[in-house]
Amino acid sequence: MSSNKDKDYQEKEQKVIAFIESTIGEQLTINDNLQRTLRSGVILCRMIQKIKPELMPRISARPLPFLQMENIHNFLNAVKELGVKPVNLFQTAELYEGTNMKKVIHTLISFEKVLKGEDDEPFNDERSTDSESSNNNKKGSNGEKDNKSKHQSTIEIFEQSHRNSQGSGKSPSSAQDQEVEQYQLGNDIGRGQFGCVYRALNLVSGQIVAIKRIRLEDQNKDDIDSLMQEVELLQSLSHPCIVNYYGFILNDEYLDIILEFVENGSLLNTLKSFGKFPEKLIANYTVKILEGLEYLHTKGVVHCDLKAANVLTTKSGDVKLTDFGVSRRLNVMDEKASAVVGTPNWMAPEIITLKGIVPQSDLWSLGCTIIELYTGKPPYSDLLPMAALFHIVEDSCPPLPDDISEELEDFLHICFKKKPSERTSATKLLEHKWILQNTHHKLLLKNF
To answer: Which residues hold ATP (predicted)?
Structure first.
């Protein structure tokens, strides 16, 4: 069966190669690796320029990851404009990282069919099933069984993760607690990387919590790995400036991560409600953010997605860092350790250029967050994400507001040093003159 699949894949690959070569008018140098040939997006963009030049005004040939991904992104937008259905489009990362070349090939075959005026067929992802695509219409109970198996394996992974981390003294912490601790979901209070966040009521104790609900059938293996990482990371953290983790509930449909409810919501919500903040208030928030970062960095954790939306505040003005879905442990260096993670406008240049994630990457994001709180928007907010990434890498420093104090300007210049090693540390930034002049905040006790 698998040999037939391999043969079918090879035939489709050869068909795609012939389509590309006939479109651009030259022979490809494949070297047994189509993904490597297409990874920069240049050849794909050249196809569009041959077919409809106005859809592809420029192509970047520079070997920078974010520019190559922009090429792929522009190609996908163009083929969608030309009539390929969204369901038949691969994701940028599936080509760039080589995680789903079957989908890439299917997109190109669909593109050729559209150009010929033929109907394109929806993609059938055979990676997650042992049945042939011809059996897809018979899914019925077998499909349900496959989904249950997927969910069951996910449950086993999370339960094993919990068993490995027991002894932290936190409760509840396992899927078994769903029979004891019942929660009633309330209003939607936000959206995270993988799902919605709800206010919820513990029907036993009356405690108000936040529940981050993730639908499992929407997640692939990489997503589940990231969710596992977030749960394990949250279990290991305990600090006044980090949102408290209470446990998780897991069933066939959802993973519910139970977190502390922080009543004021995010700084982004406060910013939208009250407008731009004065320096003194920003400095007070910055102290608490730095204390949270200092704690994370001493634990070997980099947040990787610091921004106003991921900083929660209490009624008394205390700060809680949240959303650790893309955070990294520095002592766990796997193939994802150099991946592009975070949100473009707040992203440090070393992350964009895949040079590696370090604690100082969070300090760059802190500088962007300060500008966001002062002006209402992060640096380069007027640019498209890919253009913003380009300027972050190429500019000597993000543009600073004209009317800030000299002390804040100096603070931001430290945050925006191009070399991470020159950005100092969260601990040293707590001693900066801008912080000392604008706050009377006593440093929290260390070693939580």
So the answer is: 212
